[in-house]
Specification:
about 110 residues, mainly alpha
Amino acid sequence: MEKRKLPLWLIGFFQAFGLVLYCSLVALMLSQGESWFKKVPEYFGPFIFLMVFTTSALISAIITLGYPIILFWHKKQKKQAIKLILYTAGWLLVLVISSITIIVTQN
């Protein structure tokens, strides 16, 4: 059975959409944090925020750059890796603009 390969633009869409979903979950956690976790002492609030922020940056990098790194170093497909990063960035831009448009038109 032959393995089907997804086109790069579709992989870029999935990566961008996955990042949007992840950011939505983090935003939900941040907006509901006090009601879920109660009030925390003054030191721990910024500490937890910074830990979530840095962990989030790592997870975001893995979502957007994980497969392009595999393409670049392991499969030696440098053009495809760069194209995939550009497709992901393009889809992210489309999704962000769409989200802003929906929010602005609903208010």
